[in-house]
Amino acid sequence: PPRVSPPHKRYKVMGRHKFVRLRNGKIDLGRLDEGMTGGKEAGPVRLQKGNPRFGELHIEIGHGEEIRSARASDGEHYSDAAEFVADIAANFDSVYETYDERLVLVKRNGDNKVIFVELKPSSTGKYWNVISSGLRNDTWLKKRSKIWPRTEPNK
Fold first, then answer.
1. Other Cβ atoms closer than 10 A to 142
2. Phi, psi for residue 101 in degrees, rounded to 5
3. Whose CA is closest to 119, among 38, 65, 7, 3?
4. What angle separates helix 55-69 from helix 81-91, to the nearest 10 degrees?
5. What is the tens place of the pLDDT at every residue in 29-85?
6. Cα-Cα-Cα-Cα dihedral sign, residues 85, 90, 96, 98
C-alpha cells in the first residue's frame, strides 16, 4: 500500500483543514476521473484528520480495530486508518452510489475494503473528501448501485 508520512510530518494544513500526507508529500491519495462518478465531478481523493464524525479520527475510533485486522495485497496488516484509506484510494476497482450523494470506493482483495467519499469545494478546486471507511460484505454491496466497474488496477 502507499506509505503515509510519519506522525510528526503526517498533516498538511490548508486553510482550516489538516490533510493526511503521503511520504512523497502529496495529499491526493487517489483520483476519481470522469466516467467513474455517475455524472458527478472528477477530482482527487483526500483524507482529513477530521473529528469523531468524519475523517481519520472517525475511522480510527469506529473502525480501527477492524482495519488493523485486515490484510493488504502484500499480506501485511494495515498499521492504521490512514494507510488503509490510502491503499483503497490508490487501488480501488469499483465505485458504488449511496442514497445520500456519497460514493463508495471498493477494493476487493478477500474482503471488500471501502471508503465513503463526498465532493467538497476548496480554494484549489473540488475534491472527494473521505468520510468513513471499513470492511463490507457482498450482501451490503449488492444493495448499492454500482456505477463504475474496473478491469485494471487504478494507477
1. 9
2. 75, 0
3. 38
4. 90
5. 999 999 999 999 999 999 999 999 999 999 999 999 999 998 888 888 899 999 999
6. positive
DSSP string, 94-130: EEEE-TTS-EEEEEEESEEEEEEEEEE--TT--EEEE
**3-class DSSP assignment, residue 28:** coil
Instruction: Give yes or no for a contact between 104 and 88, defined as CB atoms under 8 angstroms apart.
Output: no
Burial of 135 (0-12, 13-18, 19+ CB in 10 A): middle
DSSP 144: S
pLDDT tens string 127-155: 999 999 999 999 999 899 999 985 555 54
As to burial, measured by CB atoms within 10 angstroms (0-12 exposed, 13-18 middle, 19+ buried), residue 121 is exposed
The string over 48-62, giving b where at least 16 C-beta atoms fall within 10 Å of a residue's C-beta and e elsewhere, is bbbeeebbbbbbbeb
Please provide residue 21's backbone torsions phi and psi, each rounded to the nearest 5 degrees. -110, 140
